[in-house]
Amino acid sequence: RVKMSAEEILMCAVKLGKNSCLYFDELECDALCKEKTLHRVLRNVNSQLLVVRPDLNVAAFEDVTDQELQSGKGMHFSIHCYKTTTPLAGMPVAFSVQVEGKSYYMCCEREHGETIVRFKKGEVPNEIPGESNIIFYKRTFTSCSSKAFKFEYSMEQGMFLAFEEEGCLRKLTLKKLSKDEVDETMKISL
């Protein structure tokens, strides 16, 4: 017996017409519409917080004091959840953060043949008509871990947000994951 949630079942309203023909009402196009926004800090497996520093063009997981957390510069994220007509891929989300009164959104860009994570000044849109480099699919990290998630980049299947050691930094990056692999660097708690 399979247990399904409302997010996993796509339902369309129909009506029965003459000659017992079914008609679909109000079919939606494949657009994403903002549904709700969550406000959270993002933690890695080491309980470090993701901190965005646009002036240095870096986002990294860092140890943060309570005082730094209160000031919240570049740590308090808005997670914008979108409705979709294809729920099986996961919950589509976009990330934004406030730093010194300015809003920055997370996106991915190709640079020297590699996809990298960037934060750009601006707001996330309320509607996205098609594919977008700001959308990630939120999924539970493992079936046993309902409070931790992994985020797959919507434009490159199998590429997930993760951290990577670079000197003394744990930089936010994208990392390839095979189907059955569990990689703790991709585990993000909200």
Word description of this protein:
The chain is mainly β. It has one domain (32-189): Trefoil (Acidic Fibroblast Growth Factor, subunit A) (Trefoil). The protein is built from one helix and 15 strands. β11 and β12 form a beta hairpin. The radius of gyration is 19 Å and the shape is globular. Strands 3, 6, 7, 8, 9, 10, 11, 12 and 15 form a nine-stranded antiparallel β-sheet that branches. Strands 4-5-14-13 form a four-stranded antiparallel β-sheet, with no helix packed on it. It has one helix spanning 66-71; strands at residues 14-16, 22-24, 32-40, 49-53, 58-62, 77-83, 91-99, 102-111, 114-121, 127-128, 136-142, 145-153, 159-166, 169-176, 188-189.
Approximate strand percentage: over 45%
Major sheet details? 9 strands, antiparallel
Q: What's the overall geometry?
A: globular
Average of the residue pLDDT scores = 85
Number of domains: 1
- Are there runs of 5+ residues with pLDDT below 50, and where? 1-11
CATH class descriptor name: Mainly Beta
- The class by helix and strand makeup works out as mainly beta
What radius of gyration results from the CA coordinates? 19 Å
> How many β-strand stretches?
15
- What's the architecture, going by CATH? Trefoil
Number of helices: 1
Helix content: under 10%
CATH topology: Trefoil (Acidic Fibroblast Growth Factor, subunit A)
Helix-strand pattern: EEEEEHEEEEEEEEEE
User: Termini, distance in Å?
Assistant: 30 Å
